[in-house]
Amino acid sequence: MRDSIRKLEVRVEIAPSRPLRLVVAALILRKGAGGTEVFICQRKPDQPMSLKWEFPGGKIEPGEGPEEALARELNEELGIAADIGERVAQIRHKYRNGGAVDLQFFVVKQFRGPLENRIFNDMRWAPLATLPEYDFLAADLGLIRDLSEGKLLEKI
Ligand SMILES: Nc1nc2c([nH]c(=O)n2[C@H]2C[C@H](O)[C@@H](COP(=O)(O)OP(=O)(O)OP(=O)(O)O)O2)c(=O)[nH]1
């Protein structure tokens, strides 16, 4: 009995202090003159990881499914009603200062409403080949490389 209590205490001590954040983000796509473009957003100067570029989205709230969470975030951040499409990537990343994230990326090809900037420092459509020119969040860098080389979306 005492042994099992001791084991339990040890487990509590080594439990991770920062939980894994479950995050969903959108690759909102359109056809541009020079090929496919994706919608990218820049974080504000007063946010953690300030001025880094990212794909719109955010944390899944308790009780939400990933698609539901992403539709909510896109409505809150950009004022659009989006049709959430195929999940094309999942990435786990440990930030040096801020714990770990589990990121799921979904394609969005259709949405209703004009894109409004409600929370970002800047936002724009970027041709896939130009993505490496932007200072993206570290977790996104593998995805950025694949997108810019035309690897990930070839079947879409
Ligand atoms: N939306 C979005 N978040 C991303 C991307 N890549 C990446 O590492 N993240 C991280 C940054 C944040 O830690 C988290 C998203 O959380 P959030 O949007 O709900 O809130 P936040 O930026 O204020 O972050 P936090 O300080 O509350 O953790 O996921 C991405 O491409 N898009």
Description:
This protein is of the alpha+beta class and 156 residues long. The protein is globular. It has a single domain, classed as Nucleoside Triphosphate Pyrophosphohydrolase (Alpha-Beta Complex). The protein has helices at residues 2-14, 66-78, 141-148; strands spanning 21-32, 35-42, 53-54, 57-59, 81-95, 99-112, 122-127. It starts with a helix and ends in an 8-residue tail after the last helix. The protein binds 8-OXO-2'-deoxyguanosine-5'-triphosphate. 8-OXO-2'-deoxyguanosine-5'-triphosphate binds next to strand 1, strand 4 and strand 6. InterPro entries: MutT-like, Nudix_hydrolase, NUDIX_hydrolase-like_dom_sf, NUDIX_hydrolase_CS, NUDIX_hydrolase_dom. Its cofactor is Mg(2+). Belongs to the Nudix hydrolase family.
In short:
This protein is of the alpha+beta class.
Total helices: the number is 3
User: Which hetero compounds are present in the coordinates?
Assistant: 8-OXO-2'-deoxyguanosine-5'-triphosphate
* Low-confidence regions: 10-15
| Radius of gyration using CA atoms only | 18 Å
Question: CATH architecture, please?
Answer: Alpha-Beta Complex
- What gap, in angstroms, lies between the N and C termini? 58 Å
State the order of secondary-structure elements, H for helix, E for strand. HEEEEHEEEH
CATH class type: Alpha Beta
Task: Briefly note the structural class of the backbone.
Answer: alpha+beta
Strand content: 35-45%
How many separate structural domains? 1
Going by CATH, what is the homologous superfamily?
Nucleoside Triphosphate Pyrophosphohydrolase
Q: Per CATH, what is the topology?
A: Nucleoside Triphosphate Pyrophosphohydrolase
Number of strands: 7
Shape: globular
Please tell me the overall pLDDT.
91
